[in-house]
Amino acid sequence: MLDQIKGLHHVTSMARDARQNNEFFTKKLGLRRVKKTVNFDAPDVYHLYYADEFGTPGSVMTYFPFPNIGKGRHGVGEVGTTVYSVPEGTLAYWEKRFADEGIAGLSREESFGDKRIGFAGPDGDGFALVENKADTRAPWAKGDVPSDEAIRGFHSVSLRLKDGGATEELLKFMGYEEVDMSGTVKRLAVKNGNGANIVDIESLPGTAFAGLGAGSVHHVAFAVENRAKQLEVRKALMDTGYQVTPVIDRDYFWAIYFRTPGGVLFEVATNEPGFDRDEDTAHLGEALKLPSQHQHLRPYLEQHLQKLED
Predict the structure, then answer these.
(1) pLDDT over 90 at 310, yes or no
(2) Could you check whether the bond before residue 261 is cis, i.e. omega within 30 degrees of 0?
């Protein structure tokens, strides 16, 4: 069993409208946009990152907003729900805020004994807020949500799978342990993790497979401290038979990717170098940052990309 992985690093999803996406996460959820860059493989499309003040691994939600993308179809073989952690006693605040903001899909829920609110993103993305009194992570304190109620980071992700057995074994190999069971949902966690260290597996054998589109999670990334730890994980996965990509430089972290038995795309990302490598912390997410291979496109992109704010 591996011990290098400390929990989630980021979750990356698909969207249709960049401006709407930015408004939802920065204004309605009160997160900080910590990076405004572009998709490495499709540079005419943004890659937007929302997180806490510093872009701490375990708090980072990222999006590819493709203007003409079709709507995703939810099903098995995907991340079903991305769950954020909020302070104990704050769900009433969030429920009223979401109702006032017209956020869709509101529901009061209980999961593994914890109170939570389910809600939908602009493209039907599945989200929830869960009260977590043990979460001591600092929020983004200069956003539209008061710091006493603000999101602390990720709590967990829920994987919807036709058969969760093989993915459960993979997660256990990656250092997760089963900690609870509720109905058909099995909860696994990394001990002494980064606060975003829970993965729930929901087995839905009679459900059709998901179709990627707006509102779909593209991949979920797990955090390791540095490149040396990442190479250890890569070797162990390959020795076990997984087809893992070479290490890819994503400017703010190094990444490797592999497809899980249940169909979900996993990434293992480094905590280094971080989002302040090309911007001062006080100004994260303000300027358009481009990978070196796309710098020559700046004049075109600055005219072509949708304006995120007035």
Answers:
(1) no
(2) no
| DSSP bridge pairs for 61 | 11, 50
First to last CA, the chain: 50
CB 116 within 8 A of CB 110: yes
Q: Give per-residue burial for 41-71: e unless 16+ CB within 10 Å, then b.
A: eebebbbbbbbbbbbbbbbbbbbbbbeebee
Does the pTM surpass 0.90? The reply is yes
- Provide the token pair at 249: 């430089």
| 251 within 8 A of 259, measured Cβ to Cβ | no
Q: What is the rounded average pLDDT for all residues in the chain?
A: 97
Domain ranges of the chain: 8-304
Name the superfamily (CATH) of residues 8-304.
Answer: 2,3-Dihydroxybiphenyl 1,2-Dioxygenase, domain 1 (3.10.180.10)
Q: For residue 263, what pLDDT is reported?
A: 96
Rounded CA separation 283/287 (Å): 8
Contact between residue 188 and residue 117 where contact means Cβ atoms under 8 Å apart: no
**What pLDDT digit, counting tens, does each position of 33-50 carry?**
999 999 999 999 999 999
Write a three-state SS string for 199-224.
Answer: EEEEECCCCCECECCECCEEEEEEEE
Burial of 34 (0-12, 13-18, 19+ CB in 10 A): buried
Written as six digits, the tokens of 119 are: 């809600």
Residues paired with 85 in a beta bridge: 130, 153
